[in-house]
Amino acid sequence: MKHDHEARIAELQRRIAIEGLDALLVSTQDSIYYLTGASYIPLERPFFIIVRPQGRPDLVVPRLEYEHMRKVESFGEIRFYFEYPAVAGENWDDKLNQLLGTNVVLGIEAAFSVAKAELLKVGKLVTTSVIDEMRLIKTPDEIQAIRLASRWTDEGMRQVHRGLYEGQPVLETNMPARKLQTGVIAAGEFDYLTCSFLTVGWPAPKSAQPHSVPDLHTKMGKGPIVLMSFNRVNGYAAECERTVFLGDPTAEERKLFGHMMRAREIAYSMVKPGVSGHDIDAATQEYFASVGCGDKIIHRTGHGIGLGNHERPWISAGSGDVLRENMVISVEPAIYFPEIGGFRHSDTVLVTARGYEVITDYPSDLDSLIVRDKRPLKRLRGKIIRKAVNY
Predict the structure, then answer these.
(1) What is the mean pLDDT of residues 328-354?
(2) Torsion angle of the four alpha carbons 240, 138, 13, 116, in this order, in degrees rounded to the nearest 10
């Protein structure tokens, strides 16, 4: 998929000039990919772009990566330092100081470390969010890329949900991720440096700990199971999560599921340009509190999605972010009960001129998410898989 990196650079240069910067030092992996389309694994050797208000940027890379990074030679000058660490005169900071000079006003990203900043011998350092602000609003080509990631993400949810059966170990819920990767490869466009695939299921009551790591030996059973399909496809991300049940849920579980769904309705009713992330989160929290679940909230209502699965805007009480057209967010208000489990759906959502569009498209109603058959063929297949991996 083609992205207009030249237009991004031109817009960044315009913003740099407005901020009165002589140059901007781009240092994070996602920002470098955003501006150049260059995929790489930095390890301990840092990569940088120097962008000035005019002229071609400088891309500064380790000598080891020089030939590899010439794939973006049309972007600007490809410079290299020798190694990390290196003898005096051949380090990354030596190369940057040589290219920048001692009198520049230099912008740096918020993620740039204090230790690195102390090695720069420039006139003045200014922390700026200029690239973050650009990345908040998705371009048409980025929206197309997120739609592609969402299609694969829906497919991951379909596979993990339709493969679910009572007694299934968590291990098997990871298996669809490999099928997603194979599918992307077969589709003809696959950059393994900018792709990642994760499918997993949290059995009850472990589903009340959404950022825990479920034991691969734990078996699926009664209660709310939270399934996740969480992927990045050729640079752009999407996520889909669903609360599902093996057999009919109890009356209490139906009630709690209903509270989660009502909170989603409230959040969606507010998603449109001009609404703050703070207000959306505050509204879902207020609803949960009104039905006696205020102490069962352990995270915000949502977050931005783009190059990363988690980025601005933050849909969270205390956030200063305000929704604008062509932002992409998650909507996932949730409640968690240690003795029962968690109740959470999540979708990838585009903010439109008048409201929103849900890009992930897996069914979310309770009836569609209840598994009632015993799935004997899935059980047999699972047995074969476990034997193959000596499980």
Answers:
(1) 98
(2) -10
Residues 287/269, Cβ–Cβ less than 8 Å: no
pLDDT > 80? residue 375: no
Pairing of strands 334-337, 341-344: antiparallel
Q: Is the pLDDT of residue 115 over 90?
A: yes
C-alpha neighbours within 13 Å on the C-beta side of residue 280 = 31
In order of 95, 237, 301, 371, the CA distances from 282 in angstroms are: 48, 26, 9, 34
User: Average model confidence (pLDDT) for the chain?
Assistant: 94
pTM of the model: 0.93
- Residue 109 sits at the vertex; the CA angle it makes with 107 and 111, to the nearest 5 degrees, is 150
Q: Do the Cβ atoms of 81 and 60 come closer than 8 Å?
A: yes
Rounded Cα distance between 380 and 218, Å, is 18
Rg (C-alpha) for the chain, rounded Å, is 23
Tell me whether strands 105-108 and 124-127 are parallel, antiparallel or unpaired: parallel
The separation between CA 144 and the C-alpha centre of its own chain, rounded to angstroms, equals 16
Q: What is the mean pLDDT of residues 30-38?
A: 93
Q: Residue 212 has what pLDDT?
A: 86
Domains observed in the chain: 5-136 (3.40.350.10), 140-388 (3.90.230.10)
- Compute the average pLDDT of residues 59-81: 89
Q: Are 15 and 134 in contact (CB under 8 A)?
A: yes
CA separation for the pair 203, 214 (Å, rounded): 8
| CA–CA distances in Å: residue 119 to residues 23, 91, 327 | 17, 10, 36
First-to-final CA distance of the chain: 40
User: Is residue 133 within 8 Å of 209, Cβ to Cβ?
Assistant: no
Question: Using CB atoms within 10 A of its CB, is residue 314 exposed (0-12), middle (13-18) or buried (19+)?
Answer: buried
Short-list 126, 92, 95, CA closest to 18 = 126
